[in-house]
Amino acid sequence: MNFKEAQDYLHSFVNYETKVEFPYKESFKLERIQDFLKSLGNPQNAIKSIHIAGTKGKGSTCAYVANILKEAGFITGLYTSPHLNSFRERIRILDSSVQDQNPEPYFSGMISEDDVCVYVEKLKTAADQFNEKSQWDKLSFFEVYTALAFLYFKDKNVDFVVLETGLGGRLDATNTTDPLVCAITPISFEHTQKLGNTLEAIAKEKAGIIKNKNQVVVSAIQPDEALKAIKKRCQEFDAKLYVVGKDIFFEELFSDINGQVFNYFDSFSEYTNLRTGLLGRHQLINAATAIGIVDALRLFNFIVPAEAIKKGLETTFWPGRFEVIDKDPFVILDGAQNSASAEALKNTIKKIFGEQKTTLILGISQDKDLKGVCKALEPIAKTVILTKADNPRASEPKNLLGFFSENQDIKTTSGVKEALELSKAISLENDIILVTGSLFVVGEARDLWSRKIKQ
Questions:
Q1: Residue 185 and residue 252: Cα distance in Å, rounded?
Q2: Residue range 348-356: average pLDDT?
Q3: What is the pLDDT of residue 330?
Q4: 278 in helix, strand or coil?
Q5: What is the pLDDT, as a whole number, of residue 67?
Q6: Are 271 and 309 in contact (CB under 8 A)?
Q7: Cα distances (Å, whole numbers) of residue 241 to 50, 182, 204, 271, 446
Q8: Less crowded by CB within 10 Å, the N or C end of the chain?
Q9: CATH topology for 323-453?
Q10: Phi and psi, residue 58, nearest 5°
Q11: CB 61 within 8 A of CB 52
């Protein structure tokens, strides 16, 4: 089997990431993936995991944790979604003792094309037989790829796996592990038709990853409704809970376009003058959550040195999160896709650039809060260029027009390439081009800018 054949096989499964409408509880069956994993020998039971759910900041928090553990000498698996340019990005192994044989500019240690072929062949027969004989509906892409990741991490004998949930938590395919530490990043309104239309309901779905009293739970700063649901879930299982802002604290010292400096302390440790290249106050919350997760491993007799925490934070890079890919003009990529993330992005732009306005390239998926994102970002835009990703979920640019004020300078384009070319044509030196609204848009923009547009 070659890589194209393996890729085509994986893409033959239904992919809910490209669908706007689908019945959540009917489509997501934990029993289905549990039965499939059983047919593979339950590889997930052989790994020590850290499981992270939430609305905002899951990927960044996962990246922080994985990098810290790597710097501490642990061979660390990292499973995240969605991907920006290749599904291989989702499966990575971070190992400080190994030189990456095929270094990628953004995702070091990601699964090789050869290993994708090997592991597709390993599970193909089982997946085909399962779909033919199972009482359940057919497996999804996310379920099959999650199973592939578990097999891969088991065979590679990783010390830890850091897992990001796909959608929700309770019914997510990643919720088949028995993690040492669970974490809930900030909760806000998203996927309300599937997860619930209150913060409490959404948090309840996310907190479904908390399953027994042996787990330690770390929560980011949360709205009261969300924290109430998380606390209730922890009480049900007698799981110990640590909350940023109540048990875990950070103090911002300095920030500019190059990064941030902060102090941190909790009941275990105190760290001063920590640095991160990820920008925005929300990234300090993510960093504090990550340190809380790593410190909680002490309860399982895994001690992470302060130097590993410091270096891990400094070296964490997470593409598409206030990522500056050019400085003449400034080109910033950010995957903000709901109103809360858009507000955080607006605040970060203002903090770093003051009152300078941006050329805003905006493309949003149909199932997101279109109005909320547009209203949050309009105050920092001198020109808005509406576009769409090459994805079935993408909202048509014309559908966003009504969410902006009548006197706003707005242009519409048919795709990301046209939007980037237009932004470059109208931008001057030291202008800011901000690409946001969707990770699908951001992924296309990065690839296009580096290969074509910049030249």
A1: 19
A2: 95
A3: 93
A4: coil
A5: 98
A6: yes
A7: 15, 9, 15, 21, 38
A8: C
A9: Protein-Tyrosine Phosphatase; Chain A (3.90.190)
A10: -60, -50
A11: yes
- For 3, counting Cβ atoms within 10 Å of its Cβ (0-12 exposed, 13-18 middle, 19+ buried), the class is middle
The pair of structure tokens assigned to 314 is: 């400094």
Residue 358 has pLDDT above 70, yes or no: yes
Task: Specify the pTM.
Answer: 0.93
Q: Which residues pair with 53 in a beta bridge?
A: 184
Q: Which residue has the tokens 């902006």?
A: 404
Once rounded to an integer, what is the mean pLDDT over residues 207-225? Answer: 97
Q: In what order do the strands lie in the sheet with 181-184?
A: 91-94, 76-79, 160-164, 49-53, 181-184, 216-219, 240-243
* Residues 315, 345, 222, 264, Cα dihedral to 10°: 40
Domain 3-315 has CATH 3.40.1190.10: yes
Main-chain dihedrals φ then ψ at residue 84, nearest 5 degrees: -95, -50
Taking the mean position of all CA atoms in its chain, how far away is CA 24? 20
Show me where the domains of the chain are located.
3-315, 323-453
Going 113 to 118 to 123 to 125, the CA torsion angle's sign is positive
Q: What is the pLDDT of residue 360?
A: 98
Instruction: Measure Cα distances from 441 to 63, 93, 115, 373, 446 in Å.
Output: 21, 26, 28, 14, 9
Residue 136 in this model has a pLDDT that exceeds 90:
no
Q: Indicate whether 100 pLDDT > 70.
A: no
CA distance 291 to 314: 13
350's tokens:
């203002």
Asked if residue 455 has pLDDT above 60, the reply is no
pLDDT reading at 191 higher than 70: no
Rounded CA gap, 331 and 454, in Å?
A: 10
Cα gap 379→343, rounded to integer Å: 10
Which pLDDT belongs to residue 194? 64
What separation, in Å, do the N-terminal and C-terminal C-alpha atoms of the chain show? 37
Q: What angle do CA 338, 185, 161 make, to 5 degrees?
A: 120
What's the pLDDT tens digit per position in 367-386?
Answer: 888 999 999 999 999 999 99
Q: Average pLDDT in the 153-173 region?
A: 95
